[in-house]
Amino acid sequence: MAEIVKMPRLSDTMEEGTVAKWHKAIGDTVEEGDVLAEIETDKATMEFEAFQEGTLLHIGVEEGETSPVESILAILGEEGEDISDLLEGGGGSEKSSDEKDKQEKTESKDQAAEKEEEQSGEDSEQPSDKQKSESTEGGRIKASPLAKKLAEEKGIDLSEVQGSGEGGRIVKRDIDDFKSAKSEQTDQAPATERLASAGEPPKGMDYDEVNVSQMRKTIAKRLAQSKFTAPHFYLTLDIDMDEAITARKRINEVAEQKISFNDFVVKASAVALKQHPVINSSWAGDKIRRNHQINIGVAVAVEEGLLVPVIRNTDQKGLGAINSEVKELAGKARDKKLQPEEWEGNTFTISNLGMFGIEEFTAIINAPDSCILAVGGIKQVPVVKNGEIVPGNVMKVTLSCDHRVVDGATGAAFLQTFKQIMEDPMRMLL
């Protein structure tokens, strides 16, 4: 018997998926465990294996197309089997008989009302001031049910509409005419106003439009949610990197793998988080969750946006282990091969743009964390040491904090500890 294969939910934030590639074609035999397709989620492209066997009878989502979770991805069954009933009833597009009857009754009423309005308005002329005042009776606006419905759908304020029906009553034609008049006003408005209100570029401007990927949709949704629900505040500090530069040079002279400054930042953050557990917390509505594990997310730029693979139990790992894991996970992120367990469970996040020459920036908190550390590049500047101006190497860091969890003094104390560790790297080895 034929069975529907639905679009799977491959991550906790996935709402729809895009088929990147089909590994089977219609008519192919599918065994349980066979890779059926590669599905692009909001964070990675993952192989989807079949949980049943049979012949692939139908493909519901073509390569490059997007469909919601639980929609028909494919149908498996016996060769030649009739699947018309599954297609009609399994896609969620067919309405029940009660819904159809309700819709037909509504449409009939609308049609009757429209006909009545057209007949009543055939001999009417343009609404006068008297008609306009008559359309409001005792504070109540006089309008036909159909006109009210259309106005609500189109976002039109009935108090601004002049009624042309009997006694100044607002009818369907008035809503249609009002919409046209508003459109004409928009066309006559300055280009900058049209651009702001309609989101369209001025006439004559050349541009391309690119479809929004699942990853970019999720990034937009989550960052907007974080920015507008978590009250952010920012703390910036200068760090003397002379000792860190010397320590890194000495380590790399004997180490099998080259340690980066980002590895120092990750490790120093983990050590500082142990001393300041409030920073390693999460807002949970009526509770604050104090995380016992220190799992640091490291933001990685990829072609379509940003991914944050997680280094678990970061405080228990050395610089070499951190370096290897960051490289491995960053490579998977760029190849869109990250698995859910590799991007979930972060308790603190680091975003480093120093390698791009950025001196200082602020980052949006990566939920459910309460803080994110933005790291700039190392810059050689004049500094005062022992009363003399000498060349120095300075790195700016900015801590974005969720004020529901972290207060200013708490965030500042964490940064002071982080600064002490970075300026005396031996501390992170203890």
Question: How does this model look, in words?
Answer:
The chain folds into three domains: 3-90, OB fold (Dihydrolipoamide Acetyltransferase, E2P); 120-209, E3-binding domain (Dihydrolipoamide Transferase); 215-429, Chloramphenicol acetyltransferase-like domain (Chloramphenicol Acetyltransferase), CATH 3.30.559. 35% of the residues lie in helices and 24% in strands. It has twelve helices and 20 strands. The protein has helices at 84-90, 97-120, 129-134, 145-154, 172-188, 191-198, 214-229, 242-254, 261-275, 319-334, 340-343, 408-423; strands at residues 3-6, 16-22, 29-30, 35-40, 45-49, 54-59, 66-68, 72-77, 136-137, 140-141, 232-240, 281-283, 288-290, 296-298, 300-302, 305-307, 310-311, 348-352, 371-385, 388-402. The strands form six sheets. Strands 11-20-19-18-14-17 form a six-stranded mixed β-sheet.
Q: What structural category do the secondary elements indicate?
A: alpha+beta
- Overall geometry comes to extended
SS elements, strand count: 20
The CATH fourth-level homologous superfamily of the largest domain: Chloramphenicol acetyltransferase-like domain
* Percent range for β-strand residues: 15-25%
**Tally of DSSP helical segments:** 12
Second rung of CATH, namely the architecture of the largest domain: 2-Layer Sandwich
Low-confidence stretches are 91-100, 120-134, 192-198
Helical content stands at 25-40%
- Largest sheet, order of strands side by side? 11-20-19-18-14-17
Major sheet size, sense and barrel closure: 6 strands, mixed
Mean pLDDT: 82
Count of spatially separate domains? 3
CATH class group of the largest domain: Alpha Beta
Looking at the structure, the CATH topology of the largest domain is Chloramphenicol Acetyltransferase
The CA-CA distance between the termini, in Å, is 64 Å
Taking all Cα atoms into account, the compactness measure Rg is: 31 Å
